[in-house]
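Folding follows sequence. Below is one example:
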Amino acid sequence: MISYTPRMTDTFAISLELKERLQSGTSLYDAFEALDHPFSFPEDQYPEWHSTSYPFRGMVKLFYYRETTGESYRSLTRQQELAVLFGLKKIPDESVLSRTWHNRFDDAGRSFVTNGAHDLVWRVENGDFYAPEVRPLEEIETPLDEADDKPESQPTFTNAQISRTTHLARDHAFGSFNSGRAQNATYEDTRFLELQTFIGMAGCGTPQGARRFQIRRGAEYGPHGDTHLRTVKKFDPEGLIAGFQQATERLLSVIQSEVTFRRPVTVAIDITTLRYYGDVEGMTMVSGTKDDDGRGFKFATLSIVGWNIPIILAVEPVRESSAWDENPPNRIHRVVRRLVRRAQELVPIETVLCDAEFDAKLVYQTLSNLNVNYLIPKRSFNAERAAIKRMSEDGQDVAVESTTVHTDQGSHAMQFLYVPSTKGDGTAVFTTNLRVGPAEAEAYCQRYSRRWQIENEYKSIKYDFLAKTSSKDYRVRLFYFVFAALLHNIWRLTDFLLKAQVDGDLDYAPVLTAGECVEWVSSALIPAD
């Protein structure tokens, strides 16, 4: 039997090799594929006679990958291309993954995986290179060399606490949506929201989800799949967006007394795409993607980031002009205006973070007119490249250039901040309307790193909360996305309230996983088998 010490040595050797490959620009997938050292691995806790179609060495690598990326079980099952990477016939379903982690690994085996993967996260965080597939540092526990010096701080909760808190969050959200159907309709709107929760939880399509829901709750309780889709189409898009805002306001009201909720807030705006593979004729809300052949539905969101409760404050569909329709060109500043105005009705906003997709004068002026600060990466053109060249010749690492934005909507003073890139060698350029001196520029631009939280939100929405559908009707697509965003907010509020109950550290990293939250939201709706 392999001793514990060599195994711990090997897990850090794996971490180091992966780090070196990532630092050279290799993707995480390719870095795992290139692992060829004869590392010692944990010992399979299943006896030799136990039948299983998943080789243990491949499962160890899969869990190492999961701990490195922070992927949920459900997310892994939707990435079947990983099976070849780890020498598996397929990525097993969620229940097999859970059983494997708890039954085929002992404590030492689980430590082998988590210690090595978390060590890799720390190496990436402290290295001067960019590895987007590696999870954020804030999601993992105390660094290993400090672990023995600090007491165990992870709170534990009873099932009753989790159930009570989750139901509180759910009850504050579901009542905000109204389909406008007749009062004497067979099913109340909340029945359809319950079914939508179950479909998202089960990760299946509407027809299958409706049948399974009826089996659990009874044929008279749950609507048929076709009835569900017809009702979803009755939700007016503007009313649906307004319902999301009202639900979010109610969720926020639950924590108004919490002094740990910092005001004003820093928010991030971004756009995510849900891929679409059907015919685009007559599909005015389908847009092209960065790859020429891609198609998808696009949604913009505004979310709280930083050390506050990370919830989505506003959702806005994005309609872009495409070769197959006559849509006018996208006016992204109008999307930004609508998002910020709705969010300002809920909380005061100090700073808005956007990615380079929002690098436009009209966006700058829109945010200035809304009396918020902004921090946005600047695309490098000839002027920026010339400034960076002068900095290099003068031996400067940081520079600040003041200018003025002039548009039909007004004008304001702004600055270009030239700072060392966090993604490797070179210089990054940011724009801001806040007056920042050269001495503070680099530290101020580090605030932009908070924007990574919105990428994790999109991952949770798509892989943990979004129900499957092949519908071409945009009303269905919008409803499914908005409701998935609502479930994400319920998850985050539940996690916040649980931490508050035990006076825990109200930081970003959740103590309740997204999958656990969805199960608890649905637990009162679906009796046990």
